[in-house]
C-alpha cells in the first residue's frame, strides 16, 4: 500500500488564469519577479497552457486537482491561491489578509463553498478584515507549515504580521518560528515559501539567506527535531525556485512537485537525497515564474477529510 503522510495532501486547488500577467504592484517587494514577453496576449496564453499541463501532470500522478477558472482582468496573481486561504487537519480553514490591494479580489466564495461541499469543514476563520488595520499574513506563502511537528515557520516581511502570526498559531495550535531572511542584495525575502519546503522526511531550505548565524542554527535544529534530512539550498538555487516546492500524496506514494527550472538547479547529490523519499515531478512553468512565484505558490493543498458520497 502506498505510503501516506499528514504533511502531503492528496487533493489541491489550482486556478487557471485567462489573463495572466506579472503584477506591477507586487514587484515593489517581490524581487523574484522578472519581465515577461511584451505581448500580453501571448503571455496570457502561455500561462493558461502551463497551468493546464501542470494540473494534468498532477492528476496523472493520482493527485486530485480542483481546477478553477479565472476570467477576470483585474486579478493578475490569481494563479497563486495558496496566499489567500489554507486548510488544516480537523476540518479547519483560514482566509487571509493580503498586502497588495490588487490581490484582495482573488478570494473566492466558490472555492470555499466547494471545500464545504466536498470536504469536512468544521470552521473557517476569516482574518481578511484585518487589512483595514494594515495587518497581513499571506497564507502558506508567508508561512511554511510543518503539519507533523505543528510548527509555522515565517520570515519577516511586510506581508507577514508577527501579531497576526501569533493569533493564527493560537487559533490553529502551531508553534511560531520567526526569522529574518534576505537575498544576496540584502533585500528581505517576500515569502517564506520561496526559501524553504518541508516534506515528511526532508526539508529544503536556503539557510545562507538567514543572516543571523545563531538564528540560522536554531531554525536548522528545529527542523531536525522532526528527524528530517536537511538539504541546504544556495542563494542561486533559491533564485531558481528550488525552495518553492510541495510534497503531495500521489497514487503510488509521495511525490514532490517543483518546477523544471528548480529541478535543473539541484545537484546530483540533492536529487539523490530527495529521491530516497519522493518521486520528483517537474512542471514546466517559465511564464508563471516571471510573476515571482513557482509551483508551491500555484498549489493550495487540502489538509481535509473528503466527504463520503451518500448512495440511495
From TrEMBL:
InterPro entries assigned to the protein according to its UniProt record, in alphabetical order: Amdntrnsf_FN0238 (IPR014541)
Domain of life (superkingdom): Bacteria
The protein's name in its UniProt record: Amidinotransferase
Amino acid at each position: 500500500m502506498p505510503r501516506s503522510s499528514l504533511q502531503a495532501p492528496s487533493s489541491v486547488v489550482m486556478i487557471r488564469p485567462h489573463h495572466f500577467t506579472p503584477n506591477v504592484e507586487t514587484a515593489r517587494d517581490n524581487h523574484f519577479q522578472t519581465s515577461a514577453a511584451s505581448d500580453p496576449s501571448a503571455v496570457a496564453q502561455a500561462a493558461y497552457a502551463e497551468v493546464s499541463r501542470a494540473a494534468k501532470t498532477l492528476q496523472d500522478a493520482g493527485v486530485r486537482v480542483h481546477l478553477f477558472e479565472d476570467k477576470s482582468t483585474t486579478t493578475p496573481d490569481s494563479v497563486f491561491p495558496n496566499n489567500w486561504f489554507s486548510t488544516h487537519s480537523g476540518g479547519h480553514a483560514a482566509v487571509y489578509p493580503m498586502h497588495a490591494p490588487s490581490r484582495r479580489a482573488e478570494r473566492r466564495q466558490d472555492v470555499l463553498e466547494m471545500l464545504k461541499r466536498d470536504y469536512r469543514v468544521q470552521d473557517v476563520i476569516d482574518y481578511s478584515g484585518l487589512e483595514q488595520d494594515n495587518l497581513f499574513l499571506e497564507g502558506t506563502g508567508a508561512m511554511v507549515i510543518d503539519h507533523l511537528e505543528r510548527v509555522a515557520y515565517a520570515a519577516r516581511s511586510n506581508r507577514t504580521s508577527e501579531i497576526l502570526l501569533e493569533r493564527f498559531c493560537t487559533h490553529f495550535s502551531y508553534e511560531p518560528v520567526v526569522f529574518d531572511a534576505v537575498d544576496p542584495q540584502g533585500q528581505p525575502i517576500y515569502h517564506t515559501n520561496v526559501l524553504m519546503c518541508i516534506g515528511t522526511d526532508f526539508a529544503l531550505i536556503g539557510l545562507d539567506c538567514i543572516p543571523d548565524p545563531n538564528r540560522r542554527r536554531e531554525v536548522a535544529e528545529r527542523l531536525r527535531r522532526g528527524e528530517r534530512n536537511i538539504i541546504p539550498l544556495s542563494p542561486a538555487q533559491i533564485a531558481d525556485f528550488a525552495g518553492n516546492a510541495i510534497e503531495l500524496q500521489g497514487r503510488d506514494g509521495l511525490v514532490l512537485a517543483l518546477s523544471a527550472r528548480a529541478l535543473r538547479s539541484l545537484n546530483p547529490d540533492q536529487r539523490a537525497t530527495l529521491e530516497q523519499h519522493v518521486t520528483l515531478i517537474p512542471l514546466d512553468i517559465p511564464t508563471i515564474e516571471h510573476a515571482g512565484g513557482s509551483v508551491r505558490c500555484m498549489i493550495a493543498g487540502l489538509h481535509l477529510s473528503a466527504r463520503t458520497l451518500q448512495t440511495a
